[in-house]
Amino acid sequence: MKATLAVCATLIAASAGAAERRLSPAESESFFKELELRVSAVTSLEVGFVEEKHLAMFTDTVRCKGRMLFVQPDRIRWEITEPFHSVLVVNGQRSGKYDVVSGKPRRLQMGDEGLRTAIEQLTAWQQGRFRPKGGDFAVELWQDSSRVRMVLRPSDATLRRFIEAFELTVDVEAGRIVQVDMRESGGDRTTIRMLEERRGVTLADALFDPDRPLAP
Amino acid sequence: MLQRLYERTYAALAPHRRAVAVATVLALAFCFWRAARMTPDEDITSFLPSGDATVDAFRLVAEGFHEADQLFFDVGPDDSAVAGPADITAAADALNEELEASGLFRRVRYRMSPEQGLALLDWLDAAKPALFGADDRAALEALLTPTAVAERLDEARRRLLEPEGVLQKDMLRRDPLGLRALFLAKLAALQGGADVRFAGGRIWSADGRHVLLIAEPTFPSSDTLKSERLFAAIDGAVAAARAAGPAVQVRYAGGHRAARDNRALVREDLGLASVLSVVAIAALVWLGFRRRVLVLLSFAPVLFGFMSAVAVFSFFTDRAALVIFGSASIFAGLTTDYAIYTLYRFDNLPAGADAGRALSPLASPLLLGAATTAAAFASLAVSVLPGQRTLGVFSALGVMSAALFALVVLPHLLPAGGAARARSILPMAVWHARLVAWLRPRRRGSVAAVALLTAVAALGVARLRFDGDLRHLNGVRPETLRDEEALLAHWGGALASTAVVVRGHTPAAALARNEQLAGTLAQLRDTGEVRSFATVAPLLPSPETAAANRARWRDVWSESRRAELARVMATEGRRLGFSDAAFAPFWADLESMSETDPIGAATGQGPLAALLSPQLAVTPDEALVLTRVEVAPERLAAVTARVQAEVPGTLVVNGRALALHVTSLVTGGLVELAATSLALVTFLVWLFLRRPGHVLAVLVPVAFDVFWTLGALGLLGLTVNLMNSLFIGLVFGVASDYAIFIAGVLRDGQEDDVGVTGAAVTLCALTTLAGFGVLTLARHPVLFAMGVTSLVGVALGLVASLLIVPLLLPRPAPATPRALEEAA
Predict the structure, then answer these.
(1) pTM for this predicted structure
(2) Which of B158, B167, B582 sits opposite A117 (nearest CB)?
(3) Distances, alpha carbon B308 to alpha carbons B58, B320, B409, B481, B562, in Å
């Protein structure tokens, strides 16, 4: 499978040169099938991230770091470690969000609709569900030498008030997402780069306990 | 005198038998034509008392807020309990989509869409000055201290970096200090203490496993034709929901579904009852008569009486109440009696006898019997229940019409010629004569039987209960009942609260009263009298309050305060890396000092209007504002008194209290009903009989019958409800008929008449019992209650007449059975 993707990418790259090229519907379909198969086969995952906020609200680019843990089908831990410490834990239908101050967690309200939307989207991608259902997004795929950039434009007018497009950059050979870009309203942009991904790692159940985010 | 009048009338009509028959057919055709113009009215609230303040308040709330015309849908996991929130929301979405697409609903309240939610938040931001109450000032000032500002900006920065930050950015720019929370709390006031929560714009049960949809059809539940389409659409929507959410179950309840069930049950019950009662009556008549053709003719007065009453009604209304059709088989059982009295005597005439002369002795007892029955029905005109009044007037008309037909017209429709059989299959005259002969020397035994029955009845009367709960008259199918119970279990607190409504000629006037009410309820909540209440007052102030709020807002946001806040925010913002323009929308809002008008938004078409529609009803003439209050049943009376004292004109509607109130009305009305019925029957009996002994001989059995009937109901564990209470009065009329005939023949009948008349009375009672008895098979509680009560009342009325009348009028000696057999 890995070889198939690599050959596919090589052929595409060879025919198009180094410039980014939009994939045809047939190529897109083939790409999605392969990618979904590979991502959904990942039973567990640990990956670091660096997030950069390019917002008009800030005078400079603001960065934060952290890690994301995922276990199929629906356990996620999103943890920011710098410049502050916060933890979001999702375990099936249960979830919890915490600020950690001086080593002590403080539980926050989860009632926010924006957070739920973000969790749903994050979970879908980790489960290998990239193709939007029911026309939620218009999708374009762009290919350069070794990467495919997936552009998802929201169809929903309300969501478009906030986000013009998601861009997921996929390392074709590795079959993994290496970067997520969010093109926001007002020309703002958020970039999340994924680092040091480890697949098939053993992750303790305690890491996904929504009630005890700092359990050993 | 009546006998002579009858003989003359008979003689005048006798030569024109064909003309009489043609006139009868034409009259019936006219009645059917008039009846065809009427439509059934199955509105159960028509059973409720009219002209009563409590009931009128219930009607106003039910109609003003369409509460009786709403369907409640519960979407939750099925018995396997494996469905999660995602399955449930998918099913609810599909259900909502299908219901809305059907075009049969005025509104489906399900989910506040993200667009609506954002629009509502936009409105809330703009309306801050108008909503800024006195209690908000301290909380706002606490948010404006330098420490609080620093903390809030730090929090804003964090939130921007978290996964949901992208979606929070605009909100944080407009409200970095969290002022919106003060005003969102006013939205929470709409929820009161209801055990529900809102997530994703949907209404969830407290356990987070059920979603609620409230749909309001475009037509009332009494619209039969549209209802069929409605339920086809609902079935389709439920199927779509189950397809979208595996292992999800959709339950629903509401006025339309209850009406459909009632309609179906009534139709099924009446279809069965009509057939069975006609067959049973026909069988009894066939067995009791010698001529078979009389079986058919015995129904002629029933048909004529019923249809003529319908025709008369058609001149006053185009809607026929459920009770009229419900009473059809009972009516048949009652009015067949008049035909039987006439036909039985005709059937037992010696060959060659003058029919006019032979039938004339019937005129007085038959008219008196019909008059007492009609009087018993007519006494229902004093009832507080419109359904009972309708039935009373209808039946009084029909009974008199049937009796006159049986007496005057029927004899001229009888066939000429001799009897087919020498004697009837059931020689009741013989049996009755034997019974009377057996009872005659056993007066002490009769007295003992009466005493025993009375003693047993006394036990039952002590257990008898009144039930004024309308829901118990509701004939719904088991699956509907299951759905209703499930809805109450999941949403009970939210759906079963007390509605408190204030009124005003304008929305502004109503809202001013609503503020008074909210103040009173807040005091009652603080003292524990009220558990919680859901009010629009904080979100929808009166114009005066809104003006005061704006003034307060301007006062808080003085120029110096704004300058100080700008300085602190700039300092803290720079420390955290925020640009100078980061919070420009916040400052723009403050500078604008919006004059947003809450009433305009609430009565318009926007998201606020949609949100408040369950609690605000505005017509060109009046505005109603509803507050849902959760209050313990034992405290409701005190809370109602306090609220109505402090806010005069406030309407308080509670289902349980309404039932208790109706019970008290029925209880009080029952005594009035019985007294009116007794007075009318006594007057008529006195008018016809004029002798105290004979009057007593008729009335005493009736009194015992009523007492025994109430006792029997108590012993059977049955209650006296809105519908069967009227049959207590009816028993006066029916039982008095039997006593009148038996007393009449004992007073001045011939030897043979005792057996013939007694047999006719027994046959009448049996046919009446057949008419009532089949209703005990009914599944609809109204028809069942009417059937059982009447069955018991008529059966005991016959027993009372047979036992008590001979005790009071011991002469003359009846013919021996042998003599009667020889005569036959």
Answers:
(1) 0.67
(2) B167
(3) 35, 14, 14, 39, 84
